[in-house]
Amino acid sequence: MASHFTSHFFAGNRTRLRELFQGTAPIVITANGLLQRGGDSSFPFAQDANFWYLTGIDEPDLTLVLDKDRQYLIVPSRSDSRQAFDGTIDAADLTERSGIQLVYDGEEGWQQLAKRLKKVKHVATIAAPPSYIDAYGLYTNPARAALIERIKAIKPDIEVLDLSQHLARMRMVKQAPELRAIQAAIDATLATLKDVSKPAKLAKYAHEYEIEADISRGFRTRGASGHSFEPIVAGGEHAVTLHNVANNGPLHKRDLLIMDIGAEVEHYAADITRTVSLGQPTKRQRAVHAAVYDVQQYALSLLKPGVLLHDYELQIEQYMGEKLRELGLIKTISHEAVRHYYPHATSHFLGLNVHDAGEYDRPLETGVVLTVEPGIYIPEEGIGVRIEDDVLITPKGTKVLSAKLSGQLR
């Protein structure tokens, strides 16, 4: 399958970054490194999204340098043993993909960079995240922290400038190749969801993991590289856990089933959720699903250029409160009451990451891609419903990129 991206895309992103930054300090950005899975084996490599956005390169441990009119890549050397297992890195391939003509081996490249760093007061890079993010319960890739440590070892008093906001602003508004990749990921996701949701197929599934397996197969056979995030296949009471990724529960005809999945095409993500009935839905299940669908339609009606997501989320919270009151779940609309049954936001940015970079306090612009995903979760009744679509902000409002598959209960 032909790539949606050429070296011109990555070169253009580097140029835009330099223009946004405006300073004269060298820009130094690292690729991610491999993470240990166990012993001498690693988890599948996942490139730093910003590094890929600027280079298109999927190799670990490289360094990108943008310094005045010069730009080059530093490629670490590999031992004979590692080359035998992981292969060699071809400089010509890196140049063809990225459009960067200068490619240095690790020693020569760092010698050049060190000479420059010793002469300047500032260096621009992407700030390192904390080693552990308590709110998410996960460790982060140490590559950015290691880069900053190496720079500081060369010049301890150098001031490090953070490019995160510039890159978030750039990535927030999608370019044509990005939109094509996102649409391809969405199309693969929709076709797969449509396939596994056929009543005849649903009737044959006995466990959540059987559906997950068919989703994985569906993505690969439709041109995607795999999942853009861990798939959620949650039946019945499992659906009230928002990130139920174990996918190992039994399925029962009396239950609703949430499938929150997304294919990945050239690093770009889809993120679609549909809630379907495994049998004949009850009146209560239909009512909850109809309420979520109504909230989603209301959310879609609000989106357009100039909207602030904070204000938008408050409007949806109020509307969701009215629906929860109609369902008899709450008596008074308050933040605490609504969030008991609806504990997440309606929208997040979508792109290179499923929760993509963007500025949430910046008004929406044409070219932004968002998810719209209200849900209601009732633990005491074992009912969870979520409907999610991917939406492009247009000059006149929105275009629902995932509209080919209805969100209504079937």
Tell me the CATH topology of the largest domain: Creatine Amidinohydrolase
Strand content: 15-25%
Report strand order across the widest sheet. 1-4-5-6
The residue fraction in helices comes out at 25-40%
What is the gyration radius calculated from CA atoms? 23 Å
According to CATH, the homologous superfamily of the largest domain is: Creatinase/methionine aminopeptidase superfamily
Low-confidence stretches: none
The average pLDDT score comes to: 95
Number of DSSP helical runs: 13
Q: So what's the overall shape?
A: globular
Name of the CATH architecture of the largest domain = Alpha-Beta Complex
Gap between N and C termini, in Å? 34 Å
User: So what's the CATH class of the largest domain?
Assistant: Alpha Beta
Determine the structural class based on helices, strands and strand pairing.
alpha+beta
Descriptive key words:
410 residues; alpha+beta; Creatine Amidinohydrolase, Chain A, domain 1; Creatine Amidinohydrolase; 4-stranded mixed β-sheet; 3-stranded antiparallel β-sheet
Structure write-up:
- This protein has 13 helices and 21 strands.
- The protein is of the alpha+beta class and 410 residues long.
- The protein has two domains: 164 residues, Creatinase/prolidase N-terminal domain (Creatine Amidinohydrolase, Chain A, domain 1, 3-Layer(aba) Sandwich); 228 residues, Creatine Amidinohydrolase (Alpha-Beta Complex), CATH 3.90.230.10.
- A hairpin with a 2-residue loop joins strand 14 and strand 15.
- The protein is globular and about 70 Å long.
